[in-house]
């Protein structure tokens, strides 16, 4: 693992997603580093939550804007936009989960990846 070099593309995209979350005051932001897990589906999961569906949607939009502005990439796939309870933005090597608070507690996605290295971020 390279520490003092330029960020990998997936690390950079995860940082952009985190900035987008912070811009809209997302709560309990974490990044799971899945690169050393044998059966992982991506390099990173970024997870946060918000108290309302309106804020969940605003956070997802902010993430998309930040990533597009810097990389010209749209998510490969998006799920959950219409309901705003759990929005998933899939950038292939980075998957962002934006939950409504009660849904995050119910699904406990971060608990499913207990072997991942977790980094905690402050809400802006």
UniProtKB/TrEMBL annotation:
<dbReference type="InterPro" id="IPR043519">
    <property type="entry name" value="NT_sf"/>
</dbReference>
<dbReference type="GO" id="GO:0005737">
    <property type="term" value="C:cytoplasm"/>
</dbReference>
<dbReference type="GO" id="GO:0043023">
    <property type="term" value="F:ribosomal large subunit binding"/>
</dbReference>
<keyword id="KW-0678">Repressor</keyword>
<keyword id="KW-0963">Cytoplasm</keyword>
<dbReference type="GO" id="GO:0090071">
    <property type="term" value="P:negative regulation of ribosome biogenesis"/>
</dbReference>
<dbReference type="GO" id="GO:0017148">
    <property type="term" value="P:negative regulation of translation"/>
</dbReference>
<comment type="similarity">
    <text>Belongs to the Iojap/RsfS family.</text>
</comment>
<comment type="function">
    <text>Functions as a ribosomal silencing factor. Interacts with ribosomal protein uL14 (rplN), blocking formation of intersubunit bridge B8. Prevents association of the 30S and 50S ribosomal subunits and the formation of functional ribosomes, thus repressing translation.</text>
</comment>
<dbReference type="Pfam" id="PF02410">
    <property type="entry name" value="RsfS"/>
</dbReference>
<protein>
    <recommendedName>
        <fullName>Ribosomal silencing factor RsfS</fullName>
    </recommendedName>
</protein>
<keyword id="KW-0810">Translation regulation</keyword>
<dbReference type="GO" id="GO:0042256">
    <property type="term" value="P:cytosolic ribosome assembly"/>
</dbReference>
<dbReference type="InterPro" id="IPR004394">
    <property type="entry name" value="Iojap/RsfS/C7orf30"/>
</dbReference>
<comment type="subunit">
    <text>Interacts with ribosomal protein uL14 (rplN).</text>
</comment>
């Amino acid at each position: 693992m390279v520490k003092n070099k330029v960020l990998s593309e997936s690390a950079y995209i995860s940082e952009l997603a985190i900035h987008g979350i912070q811009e809209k005051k997302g709560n309990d932001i974490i990044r799971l580093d899945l690169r050393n897990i044998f059966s992982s589906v991506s390099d990173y999961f970024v997870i946060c939550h918000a108290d309302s569906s309106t804020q969940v949607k605003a956070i997802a939009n902010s993430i998309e804007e930040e990533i597009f502005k810097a990389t010209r990439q749209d998510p490969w796939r998006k799920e959950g936009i219409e309901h705003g309870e759990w929005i998933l933005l899939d950038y292939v090597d980075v998957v962002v989960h934006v939950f409504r608070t009660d849904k995050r507690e119910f699904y406990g996605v971060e608990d499913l990846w207990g072997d991942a290295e977790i980094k905690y971020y402050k809400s802006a």
